[in-house]
Amino acid sequence: MNDYIIEPAKTEDYESILELYNELHEVLEECNPQKFRKIEKTEILITKEYFEKALNHEVNTNFEVYKINGKTIGVVEYAVWDAYKNTGFIPCIVCVIGNIVVKKEYRNQGIGTHLFEYIKNKKCPEFDVQRIELDMEAKNINALSFYKKLGLIEDRIRFSMNFWKKTWQFRNILR
Predict the structure, then answer these.
(1) Assign residue 70 a region: left if phi > 0, alpha if psi is -120 to 50, beta otherwise?
(2) What is the bridge-based pairing of β-strands 62-68 and 71-83?
(3) Sequence-separated (6 or more) residues with CB below 8 Å from residue 138
(4) pLDDT at residue 167, as a whole number
(5) How far does CA 51 lie from the centroid of its chain?
(6) How large is the average pLDDT for residues 63-92?
(7) What span, in angstroms and rounded, lies between the C-alpha atoms of 28 and 140?
(8) Are the C-beta atoms of 3 and 69 separated by less than 8 Å?
(9) Nearest to 175 by CA among 98, 74, 85, 100
């Protein structure tokens, strides 16, 4: 994987990123079908409007893409903010990774690691980040192994309780 580039996403990357998020949703659906339902072809996980807002820095979400020969095959979504003010925690600048997604046929080739290392070594110093955090599905064993391999540690446990209705309309995951 010598001929790759990691760069901020551009408008023309939208469709490729949407495909990556659809692949991610399939993995999540497999891991936790009680929480993730099959999405219809007409449903979108990231609206074009939200994506454009992210590109224009109107929302606190950033997308960096991994490309080989101009083809987008991976994405990392992240946000940086000054966290834990007035909470009893030690305040610090935190980078929260929303997702690292690599196209199915390119997985297990170090691309996800490149994306994480790019955020850790390039973006985090730009913002004087003191901590990286992320949430993940507990049943996603591959992601758990991946993040542990990167050196992340489990330091919180999140509990949840679902109150799903039998019928509901799709809401965009990212707003």
Answers:
(1) left
(2) antiparallel
(3) 144
(4) 47
(5) 13
(6) 89
(7) 7
(8) yes
(9) 98
DSSP assignment of the chain, as one string?
--SEEEEE--GGGHHHHHHHHHHHHHHHHHH-TTT-PPPPTT--SB-HHHHHHHHTTSSS-EEEEEEETTEEEEEEEEEEEEE-TTSSSPPEEEEEEEEEEE-GGGTTSSHHHHHHHHIIIIIHHHTT--EEEE---TT-HHHHHHHHHTT--------------SS-----SB-
Q: How far apart are CA 36 and CA 27, in angstroms?
A: 9
Amino acid at the residue 90: I
Residue at token pair 């004087």: 128
> Torsion angle of alpha carbons 84, 153, 137, 124, nearest 10°?
60
Mean pLDDT in residue range 44-53: 86
CA distance 174 to 94: 20
The pTM score is 0.82
**Tens-digit pLDDT profile for residues 84-127:** 776 777 788 999 999 999 999 999 999 999 999 999 999 999 99
The residue count of the chain comes to 175
Check: CB of residue 129 under 8 Å from CB of residue 95.
yes
